[in-house]
Amino acid sequence: MVERETSLLRDAPRLLVLSLLGLLLLMPYIWMVAASLKPADEIFRASLSLIPERFAVAQNYGRVFELVPVARYLLNGVIVCGGILFFQLLFAIPAGYALAKLNFRGRELALGAVMLGLLVPPHVPALPLYAGFSQLGLLDTYTALIAPSTISVFAIFLFRQFFKSLPDDLIHAARLDGMSEMAIVWRVVLPNARPAATAFAIFSVVAHWNDLFWPLIVVNTPEHATPALGVLFFRTTEGDDDFGALMAAAVVMTAPLVIAFLLAQRRFVEGIATTGLKG
């Protein structure tokens, strides 16, 4: 008991600093939620108060659900993020396994190409991709939203690092049982890679759920709008200067991400902690 109290006292400064930093990072989201509960005349007062004097929950959120096809935007977000994640895992897991556990000519060159791919901003290929989809008549479709992100060099690198920490004896035993390399990937390696897959899934879903750059380029109707683009449509067509309703729309569109992270945070931390950094 005494050792536990001593440990808590020793860790108290670190925990206090981490708590303050966490609160600082959460402040924009806390302000957004607080603003979504206020009437318009309270949002931009000189005195900053998170607790409203008069609650306008029904007014702000009611306007969002009345004027915005919330279910459509959320469904589009699930389809786009789910499709992207499916193909990213489909390509990245075998690629990461090959770079980590297979000896073949050009492996280091392929790894170098992956590392270089991490340095390429997503804005660089945007123009040729837009021109290509335009020529194919695929603008304003799910294909245009999903296809450019199906291969993630970050995912390949992440899984490669994770697979490096897997024991070689596990792979050799599967080969002795007569399993093919692809069978080893999906039946042996993948079940052991669930922590890394969960961690990457959160990175991927958060990035593409919140992405505004690419959907703003290829989508011009609400039918295929993602949640971030749906908030922008609401701002330009209905929201005007009603910042209370605009913040309410942002809360509704980001709430699934917060819930998903809270449900998966243990596996997320486990995946980050167990992803090795071996060369």
Describe, in plain words, how this protein is organized in 3D.
There is one protein chain. Helix 11 packs antiparallel against helix 14. The longest helix has 35 residues, at 2-36. With 279 residues, this protein is an all-alpha fold. The protein is built from 14 helices and no strands.
Strand residue percentage? under 5%
**Whole-number mean pLDDT:** 85
**What is the CA–CA distance across the termini?**
42 Å
Q: Helicity level, as a percent range?
A: over 70%
Number of strands: 0
**Structural class per helix/strand content?**
mainly alpha
Helices, by number, come to: 14
Topology pattern, helix = H, strand = E:
HHHHHHHHHHHHHH
**Biggest sheet architecture:** none
Low-confidence stretches: none
Alpha-carbon Rg, integer: 23 Å
Tell the overall outline: globular
Short description:
With 279 residues, the chain is an all-alpha fold. Helices cover 75% and strands 0% of the residues. The chain is built from 14 helices and no strands.
How is this fold's topology laid out?
Blueprint: H1 2-36, H2 40-43, H3 57-67, H4 70-101, H5 107-117, H6 126-136, H7 142-146, H8 153-164, H9 168-176, H10 181-192, H11 194-209, H12 213-218, H13 227-239, H14 243-274
Tags for this model:
279 residues; mainly alpha; 14 helices
